[in-house]
Structures are given as C-alpha cells and as structure tokens.
Amino acid sequence: MNRRMVLYVTGRVTFVVGVLMILPILVALIYHEGTDTIYPLFQAMVATMAVGAAMASRPPKRRSIYVREGLAITGLSWIMLVIFGSLPYLFTGAIPSIPDAIFETASGFTTTGSSILSEIESLPRSVLFWRNFTVFIGGMGVLVFAVALLPKSNSEDIYILKSEMPGPTFDKVLSRVRTVARVFYVIYAVLTLILICILIGAGMSPYDAILHAFATAGTGGFSNYNTSIAAFESVPIELILAFGMLIFSVNFNLYFFALRGRWREALKSDELRWFDHWRQTRMKWHRALGFGDEHYRFHDHDKLAHYANAATDVEFEFPFGFKEVEGIHSRTDFDLGNHAKFSGKKIQYYDTETGESYVPYVVETSIGVDRMVLQVLSAAYKEERLENGETRTVLNIPAAIAPVKAAIFPLVKKDGLPELAHQIKDMLKFDYNIQYDEKDSIGKRYRRQDAIGTPLCITVDYQSLEDKTVTVRHRDSMQQHRVAIADLAAMVGDEVSLRKLFSKIV
Question: 269-375 adopts what CATH topology?
C-alpha cells in the first residue's frame, strides 16, 4: 500500500474541510453573533487546516492509487472528517459532549439525518449553517468535492470516487476524473441554487431557504426548527422539498447527458433500466411460488457498497417479520474493470449503435438457499381443521419444488394390487421422485404424505384391475378423480412441471 499517498490525500481532504469552515464564520459575522461564537469557529478552522496541512506536507514520490489505497483514503478521511467536523460544535459549546458532537457530525456528513438535538432553535445561526452544510457536502461526497479541488488528478483517482460515490459511470462520461468531479459538483450546486430561489419565492427567508436546500440536496432532512418543515405550515413548501429530494436522488449521469443533448442516453440509462428489469424479474420469481403477493416487498438500500450504484433486497414476511431472502446489486464495472486492470486483459464491449467501447456492468442477484428453505417451510406449513373435526398437518409446497412428487398406494396388500402399484411406480420413477406406501389405512397414508408436502397420491384399487384406472387425490384440495394408468405420466408431469411455475415470470 502507498501509505504516504494515503496520508497526503487524507491531509488534503482535511485541509479542504478546514477551509470550508470559513462559511459559518461569515454567517456569524452577518448576524452579529459576537466573539463568543466567531472566535471558537475561527479556532476550529485553524486547527483543522493546520492538521490537514501537516499531514499533506510531504507529497509522495509515487502517486499511484489503486483499490486498496482508495478504500484506505475513504476510511481514514471519514474518521478525520467526523473528528474535525465536530470542532465547531465543541468549541462553541453548542454541543459540549464529545460523543454527541461526533454523532451529529457523522449524521450530517453521511446524510443519515438523525440528531441528538432537542432544542435546535436555541443554537447560533452559524452553527446551524455548519450542521446543514455537512449534509450538503455529504450528499455528493466529501471526497468527490476534494478531488474536484485538487490541483492535479489522474485516472487512478477514480478509485477514490468509486469508494465514495459509486453512482456515476465516470469512464463513460468524461475521460478525466477531476473534470468529472467538477462537472457533477457544478450540476449539484446549480440545482441547489435553483431550489434556494424557489424556496424564497414560496415564502422562506434566504437563510431558511439555504439551509433547507442544503438538507434537501443531501437528502439528510436536517432543519433549523424543532418542528422541521412543519414550522412553515405551508403545503407548497412541503411539496417543493419533496420534489427536490426526488430530483437530487436521480443519478447525475442523466443530467449530464441531458445537458449535452444526449436525451436518448439519459432516458435509456442502462443502470436504471437493467437493474429495474432484474429487480422486477426476481420479484416475479418469488411471487410465482404462490405464497401470496402481499407477503413480499422490496427494501431499497440507502447506503451502498463502494462498488455499487443501486441495491435492493427482496423481503418475505416470516412469522417473525419481514426478512431478506434475496439481494440484488448493481455492481457497476467494478468487477470486470478491476479484472482487466490487474490481468492486463482488455474486457470491453463495442456498442455498434453508439460507436463506443466500454466495460460491461454486472447486476448480481444473490439468493440465500437456507433462507429460501425456511421461507418455503414457514409459508407452506399449515394445520387445517377438517369437516369431521379432525386436524391435518400439511405442507403446501409448490408442486414444482416438492421433494416427493407422488405417492402410490395399493388399497390392500393382496389380490394383485401391490404388483400393479409397483408397475405404476416403475413407470414413473425415472422421471419423478415417487414413494410407495402400503402400511396402515389409506387415511393415515394420506396424512403422512400431506405432512411432507407430496402434491399427488395415487391409489390402486380393485377397479384398477378391471378398467386400468386409478384414484388420484390432490393434496391442497383433497379432491379425488379417476385417471387412466396410460395417462398418469402426462398428468403428473403437468401438475409438477417447472414450466407452469416459470410461465408466471414471463
């Protein structure tokens, strides 16, 4: 690992954050908050800049940044940001507790939106500005902002950006990473400025508009009022902020393509189209099992892995609540891109329509077999009370995935019935998992097969010897009907076919 490069970049990021602290100082001066607020803010700024400058004082000879360095820079930078970002709270006394100040800072930079503050309106305007400004910076990514400000950048800086903000497809937008960071931040800033103007037009003061625009852009939800946006008692403001969060949640690639007049690419965004395709396809697969659509839901991830630009879980309602049964992740070009980089092999696809070559994206679906087994068992298990007062235990496992497809019973163990039953078993056993049972009464045999989820029970009786038909009993409905032995294979195949299950997905 290039440790000196990690320390250098982290120092630059820390220094940038220190420089940004001049903004709350300016707010304090505008609102005449006095030296008891301005001086501590100045101290926080100087301390942060000093530490950052000290860390970055020795530029590395080797400036290479790879995946390991990118992850190290991201992790260490966030630790420094949270520590030094909490200084304005601590030095001004707005949040005197170190753990509370660190929590509030981390919540801001990560755009979590949780807060330990109960009396928000009692804090200085400058401190509240810094609080919402951390959300604004965190919305696009602190490291993206830092890379945009760095005087020199190379293609390897993409590992920093992908670790921090995995959304944009940098190599398909522009060639230089620093330029990409600047372009996206310009779009981010312009959209924020537009939102500020709209909020002012809706009746907010400039100060309130700026803070709520910051919180909306970062989708963090911080407000400078105890009752949040309810303090304005304005439906238009609520709608504006809700729409603003929607606008800022869209991948900025779409805005970039739109600005360049590439509307077709924006509307055809691969990541939106293909991720959603697999998202819906996998949900159809789960619902095709027949356990009830209302027992399934999506859980979209707010926080993504450094390599992903979208992620969702398919959750099933177990007796103990909704739990994940499958994860669907859009891994961007992280996998194939790194394979190409370290193997030295070019892995690209040439698009004949656009004339562009690019590394394909990977959409990964990961289903837990143990959880699926638990899902099937918990959903299928039932205790049913019958009309005669008896109770039967049954596993309503979908016939296509039931371990045993059919059971064959001779009515009695004599008079040639077992021999005919064995003939039928031999006819079916090479295509299906079949059980043979001649112990106890027919009713008890039915109950045993119900308990293990066998969808079909075939009974050979005296009529079978005469007309070559058998009684077929269905597990779920318990209805019975006669079927010719010659038609049994086709009937069983139709009942337990995977085709019937998969046809629901198309």
Answer: BirA Bifunctional Protein; domain 2 (3.30.930)
Class of domain 389-502: alpha beta
Backbone angles phi and psi of 370, in degrees to 5: -65, -40
What number of helices (H) and strands (E) belong to the chain?
22, 13
Query: Does the CA dihedral 252-258-259-261 come out positive or negative?
Result: positive
Of the candidates 62, 48, 41, the residue with the CA atom closest to the CA atom of residue 10: 48
Asked if 256 and 183 count as a contact pair (C-beta separation under 8 A), the reply is: yes
Residue-range domain boundaries for the chain = 3-262, 269-375, 389-502
CB-neighbour burial class of residue 137 (10 A; exposed 0-12, middle 13-18, buried 19+): buried
**CA dihedral sign, ordered 325, 328, 329, 335:** positive
Polymer length in residues for the chain: 506
Top mean pLDDT of 69-78, 297-306, 321-330, 335-344 is at 321-330
**153 contact partners, CB below 8 Å, separation of at least 6:** 147, 176, 177, 178, 181
Which segments of 255-309 are extended strands (E)?
Answer: 296-300
For residue range 173-224, list pLDDT tens digits in order: 433 455 666 777 788 889 999 999 999 999 999 999 999 999 998 887 889 8
pLDDT at 259: 67
Other beta carbons within 10 Å of 34? 10
Which of 44-49's residues contact partners 24+ apart within 8 Å by CB, and which partners?
A: 44/84, 44/87, 44/88, 44/90, 44/91, 45/18, 45/19, 45/21, 46/18, 47/18, 47/84, 47/87, 48/14, 48/15, 48/17, 48/18, 48/21, 48/84, 48/87, 49/15, 49/18, 49/19
What is the rounded average pLDDT of the residues 162-183?
Answer: 49
DSSP assignment letter at 486: G
Contact 17, 136 (CB under 8 A): no
**Strand pairing class (456-460; 406-410):** parallel
138-161 mean pLDDT: 55
Q: Which letter does DSSP use for residue 122 in this model?
A: G
Instruction: Report pTM.
Output: 0.53
Runs of H (alpha helix) within 175-234: 177-201, 206-217
Encode pLDDT of 275-317 as tens digits. Answer: 888 888 899 988 888 888 899 999 888 777 777 777 889 999 9
